[in-house]
User: Which sequence fits this backbone?
């Protein structure tokens, strides 16, 4: 049963509302002034307040401000005398759900009360969901066994300390860039607000500006009402721009202007609106190369790249395969309603040798396929793996057994990576873009490992046939 508090100094009003709303199944409490109304709100759970704007011991707007501050989840409907509509409009601007003008029709009161109760219930459900959502995110559970991922998550934690610095997260598709972005949001001062996301490649270019900045009524054909854009909706929170490299050039200029002055202008409006939004951008593209070929603005790139974070592909962090595998096995087992099987060590070793072109997402999908289609008992065995995942060696086949002590995996991996980078640079005559293409990795990944392993990236004079901007000397 819902509880409605009526605060009005006229006894006839209180009695009318008690009888009319009580007949609808609501429990109605009443108070003749602001002081006693506040006492009720302090000791009783209430779902809706209906209050007069003319009270004997306090201004109605002052009581409204107190309610919005002390019990903000409770909707308020204000009662105003005939001819005081301006005051009622001011109350709505302060957070009142609606207003009733005396003399009022009881059926209209019931309708407004019903809508206000629905709005309050929805707000409480959303708030509960957001609190549970926030509580369910534990950054300490993010898998980061490898040194590379420990460095990535360390950067994410440091970036979260700033509530406003823009972050650019790069990496191949499926590496876990969104997990890094969520970590930044949920560890930041903005964590109490929901994280807003948009995929710049999934929305038609003609709608992107309206999606970001909103529009006024009549701004274009079909704009029958005005609406907020994502930047206004995300005021006080974080906006995650996925696939930012696909953003059209004209929208890039407008996003840059927002990053510079913090204001948005809806389509069809000249009035700027100030908002406070933190931008976290993600891309699997080499934005430096796109800057060089003119498809991405250099000034926007530098404005987004305040805190750069590169997420390495799964094939370069084999230490994470086992923990990720066991995590997905547990999660998928719970989803399909079965007991999680144990994972045999030979399964982990086999999957560590696989190159994972689809990265973490491919591993997750593999686990789901196995647990749904294979007859897996109490243990996940190599026999349950598809043929392409069993007994695979490196790029040149299984490694020969060493007659003496084997080197550490990380040392052997780094040595092989260094040789591959050097060889690719030689074949590409020093051109980083072509060298990364030879190895089928993105330019940012190539530069990251070259610097990490001390592979020289010396500048050179452009060779005939090179694409413009094909070589950028290392910083």
Assistant:
């Amino acid at each position: 049963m819902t509880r409605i508090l009526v605060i009005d100094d006229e006894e006839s009003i209180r009695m009318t509302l008690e009888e009319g709303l009580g007949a609808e199944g609501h429990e109605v409490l009443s108070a003749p002034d602001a002081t006693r109304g506040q006492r009720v709100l302090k000791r009783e759970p209430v779902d809706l307040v209906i209050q007069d704007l003319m009270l004997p011991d306090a201004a109605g707007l002052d009581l409204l401000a107190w309610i919005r501050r002390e019990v903000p989840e409770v909707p308020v409907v204000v009662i105003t005398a005939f001819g005081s509509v301006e005051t009622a409009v001011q109350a709505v601007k302060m957070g009142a759900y609606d207003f009733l003008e005396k003399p009022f029709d009881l059926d209209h009161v019931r309708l407004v009360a019903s809508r206000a109760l629905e709005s309050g219930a929805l707000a409480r459900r959303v708030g509960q969901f957001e609190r549970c959502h926030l509580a369910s995110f534990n950054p300490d559970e993010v898998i980061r066994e490898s040194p590379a991922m420990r460095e990535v998550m360390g950067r994410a934690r440091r970036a979260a300390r700033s509530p406003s610095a823009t972050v650019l997260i790069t990496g191949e598709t499926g590496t876990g860039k969104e997990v890094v972005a969520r970590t930044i949001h949920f560890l930041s001062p903005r964590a109490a607000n929901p994280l807003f996301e948009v995929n710049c490649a999934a929305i038609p270019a003609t709608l992107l500006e309206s999606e970001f900045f909103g529009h006024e009524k009549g701004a274009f054909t079909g704009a029958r009402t005005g609406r907020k854009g994502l930047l206004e909706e995300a005021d006080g929170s974080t906006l995650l721009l996925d696939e930012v490299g696909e953003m059209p050039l004209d929208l890039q200029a407008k996003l840059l202007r927002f990053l510079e002055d913090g204001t948005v202008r809806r389509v069809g409006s000249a009035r700027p609106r100030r908002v406070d939004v933190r931008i976290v951008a993600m891309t699997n593209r080499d934005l430096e190369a796109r800057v060089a070929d003119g498809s991405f603005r250099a000034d926007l790139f530098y404005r987004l790249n305040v805190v750069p974070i590169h997420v390495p592909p799964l094939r370069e962090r084999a230490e994470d395969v086992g923990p990720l595998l066991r995590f997905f096995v547990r999660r998928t087992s719970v989803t399909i309603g079965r007991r999680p099987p144990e994972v045999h060590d030979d399964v982990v070793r086999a999957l560590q040798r696989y190159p994972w072109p689809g990265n973490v997402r491919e591993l997750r999908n593999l686990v789901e396929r196995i647990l749904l289609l294979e007859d897996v008992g109490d243990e996940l065995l190599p026999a349950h793996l598809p043929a392409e995942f069993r007994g695979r060696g490196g790029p040149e086949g299984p490694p020969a057994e060493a007659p003496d002590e084997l080197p550490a995996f990380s040392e052997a991996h780094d040595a092989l990576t260094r040789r591959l980078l050097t060889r690719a640079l030689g074949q590409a005559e020093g051109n980083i873009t072509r060298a990364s293409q030879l190895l089928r990795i993105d330019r940012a990944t190539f530069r990251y490992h070259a610097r990490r392993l001390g592979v020289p990236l010396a500048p050179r004079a452009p060779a005939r046939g090179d694409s413009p901007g094909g070589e950028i000397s290392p910083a």
Observations:
- The longest strand covers residues 278-283.
- Residues 205 and 248 are 7 Å apart (CA to CA).
- The longest helix spans residues 106-136.
